[in-house]
Amino acid sequence: MEVKRRTVRSLVTKLGSVSEQTRAEALAELRLLSKHDAEIRPMISEAGSIPYLAEILYSSSHAFQENAAATLLNLSITSRDSLMSTRGLLDAISHVLRHHSTSTSSAAVQSSAATLHSLLVVDSYRPIIGAKRDIIHSLIEIIKTRNSPLRSVKDALKALFGIALYPLNRYQVIALGGVQPLFSLVVNGGRAGIVEDASAVIAQIAGCEESVDEFKKCCGIGVLVDLLDLGTGSGHRVKENAVSALLNLVNFGGERAAEEVKEMAMQVADGIADVAQNGSAKGKTKAVALLKILVDDGNMNITMTNEEILKKLKN
């Protein structure tokens, strides 16, 4: 252990060297150590590396950016408190994301977005990160930029999902123009996993009263209903996300939204019933809740078969 500590202290000291080659070699070594040795990650954080790594994110060198961002991602697995308590870290991550299509390498963007997702596992960090409007704006820009790499889009979506888990952050995502790009990904997202990840974010931000008007601008309710059509072949996760989004619109969007959801969702009652019967435990609960709204019946239960549910809807 002591040998590891000495090695780490030496490498972190070299991050402050005037020699670019010395800094580059130390950074590359820290990246490898933090990736392959879980025991050494706290040592790297405790040795004072994080301020250096945050500063390196501003470098014009793609190699420096990538190694620093990847090391921070590795450290976020075990040293989230150390990262969040480092002054300027979120600003440095924001800088990387903001320049996603110009001076920042794709790999650094992906690692930085993934670091945010890792930090957002902690409930108390969600309002702090959500208060950084520049971060939310940059994540939205990544998902709406046509030539963004697939992994950049997926990592940005996962970060947005983590941000939207905190209810007060949902309005920020909406206000900063996140709704239209999210629905565009659902409609046009033929790439692997994109529809699932985008619909998961949509389901979260639907839990905000301001979502109703924005959803209308891009025919959002119709898109969600289409996802539940058994003929579209949507995956189970996507269907569950659509159910969750529609239920949130009913619960948070007021009477007008509830009536619109009820009218349109009746067209895909069989799809909702399928989730109620075959979804995850959470998916089943939400699907049954939505079906109760469609038939105004509080006696419907999760053990009913698809046929029984559909019969009840037709009566």
From TrEMBL:
Gene3D superfamilies: Leucine-rich Repeat Variant. The keyword Repeat applies. It comes from Citrus sinensis. SUPFAM superfamilies: ARM repeat (SSF48371). Residues 8-311 form the U-box domain. Keywords: Repeat, Ubl conjugation pathway. InterPro entries: ARM-like, ARM-type_fold, ARM_PUB, Armadillo. It comes from the Eukaryota. This is U-box domain-containing protein. One of its GO terms (cellular component) is cytoplasm. ARM repeats lie at residues 48-76.
